[in-house]
Design goal:
alpha/beta, three-stranded parallel sheet, six-stranded mixed sheet, single chain, about 15% strand, about 260 residues, TIM Barrel
Length: about 260
């Protein structure tokens, strides 16, 4: 299988995992005997009503806007993904959750959904550790931690406590995370194994493994059945507007 087709297949799996998990949790919370989730009562079952996770869905789970270090307003970013054939996008600005309610008018187009998201941005042991909180209900924020393991455990735990899905971002950014670090976060459901950002070392280097090799390490140690983690490809969009001389983290690269 060619590299591009491989990323496409992984993105399909990741999209289905995120939406199916979010949909299942929404159904669980709507049960009369289920406890109310952190952050308030659940909203309508929008995911299963809007997207069919049994078929291919094109989407992006790592996206920045001018609310953090992106170059464009949230509505412009959402418009690009909506108008370029995507079924969903998660806006994941640093340490602030974007409420998808502000884009309801955009979702008049069939089969397009804006997912709530946030990039939990932390530092530990002199390195940057980032985890995307997907389908959560309130901002989590980041912080400084003594160890990378504590940072991952804290972030993933906060995401899961809100019924969300945790995506461990770009392990090789800042050469932050090893296979051992990833194995210390067993509750994380998704792992970035390809990023469109030019500075996150997706392919590793002569001395350090690629994101895909790190994923292999985790799968081998956990086992594919019951303990696996889904690999996804993302844009990590920062630059929607062309014109910079620096390599751009633009849209449409993870797919």
């Amino acid at each position: 299988m060619g590299m591009r087709r491989r990323w496409n297949a992984l993105l399909v799996i990741g999209a289905a995992a995120v939406l199916a998990l979010a949909s299942w949790r929404e159904r669980a919370w709507s049960s009369s005997d289920a406890p109310e989730p952190p952050g308030g009562p659940p909203g309508p079952l929008r995911f299963e009503q809007t997207l069919d996770v049994e078929v291919f869905q094109r989407g992006n789970l790592h996206t920045h806007t001018s609310r953090s270090d992106g170059d464009s307003e949230p509505r412009e970013v959402v418009r690009w993904y909506r108008d370029n054939g995507y079924a969903f996008v998660a806006l994941t600005d640093h340490n602030q959750r974007v409420d998808p309610a502000m884009f309801r008018d955009f979702e008049a187009q069939p089969n397009f959904v804006v997912l709530p998201g946030e990039e939990i941005t932390m530092s530990a042991e002199g390195r940057q550790v980032h985890v995307n909180a997907l389908c959560t209900r309130a901002t989590i924020g980041g912080g400084d931690f003594p160890t990378k393991g504590e940072a991952l455990s804290w972030a993933v735990g906060r995401v899961r406590a809100q019924g969300g899905v945790a995506l461990i971002n770009h392990p090789n950014f800042d050469w932050a995370l090893t296979g051992g670090d990833l194995l210390g976060a067993p509750a994380a459901e998704l792992l970035e194994i390809h990023s469109g950002h030019p500075y996150v070392h997706t392919e590793g280097d002569a001395a350090r493994p690629s994101h895909e090799a790190l994923w292999d390490t985790v799968l081998t140690a956990r086992g594919f059945v019951g303990g696996g983690i889904v690999g996804v490809a993302v844009d990590d969009l920062h630059q929607l507007v062309a014109g910079s001389n620096a390599p751009a983290a633009g849209p449409g690269r993870g797919f």
